Amino acid sequence: MNFETLKLEKGMYANPQKSFSQTLEELDPSHDYAGTPLEGLDAFARQLKRFDIKVSGAKSDSIYKFFENTQAAALFPEYVSRAVLSGITAADRLGDVVAATTNIASLDYRTLNARPESESKAMKVVAQGAEIPSTVMKTQDNLVKLQKRGRVLVASYEALKFQRLDLFTVTLRQIGAQIARMQFNDAVDVLINGDGNQNAAAVVNAATAGTLKYGDLINLYNKLDPYELSTIIASTDMMTAMLNIDEFKNPMTGINFQGTGRIDNPIGAKFLKAPTAAAGTIIGLDKGCALEKVVASDVSIDYDRLIDRQLERAAITSIMGFAKIFPEASKVLKV
Description:
- It is elongated, with a radius of gyration of 25 Å.
- It is an alpha/beta fold.
- The mean pLDDT is 88.
- The strands form three sheets. Strands 5-11-8-6-7 form a five-stranded mixed β-sheet, with helices on both faces.
- The longest helix is centred in the middle third of the chain and has 29 residues.
- It is built from eleven helices and eleven strands.
């Protein structure tokens, strides 16, 4: 079969428009294996099988197995990338915050500013011959700020070559999880302070300074109208305070609000904790229209160093930024 004769080399990582896996799939399409024992494996998994490399389980191989063959060594950066991505996916909380994802091929990006006139939000009846209210769409004045996040592997190949891949995968997943947490913190910062285009979130003050009550969350819910309160992000102290409100401790509360299936409400929102947010901060947002994720580089690996066994200075990075879509779709409750 074709997967056993493919020539693997560094150059397969060099195309900025395609990942190593995408290049492999083009050379060795998975649909060609329908009805065979290899059905269900992607092109990368078939290459692991070709070189008999087991990356998981109690009987996983050592890192050295990748470097027994010069072509197999070309698979190592992709293995690292996939392990890191699995950690990012497992720790990802942006799915409850981001409305749209934009992939770009540069470091400069201006998002759209779509701000309807106040009257047009209500979609009032337009009299015959009258002007139809407009929603003005234009690019923002300032560029979206992209943050480069990542880690450098600090270990020699000699120190790691006999380490089992199963354990090494766990370490790589933790690197991915750390990247995901930092990206979430970046998103929280933009939700609160804006993306540099004078669109910081409007502040709703608690009825009693320093004290969080259930009525404050109801007020936040109402202030967000006409947007839905789908996600609540709270600083550590506010998460503790919310969970200690009597209405939250009463098991009947969820039944009373959610049992009818007719009304969305603050209790029905997804709760997320943001340890880096300032004390006394709660963010309420409509995840369907509040934030845009801008990705310049999902996960980038120093493939040259990894293939050449220079693990001690191999960087694993991701470049990402966030932009407000509808600034009114998120508000901050200050306690």
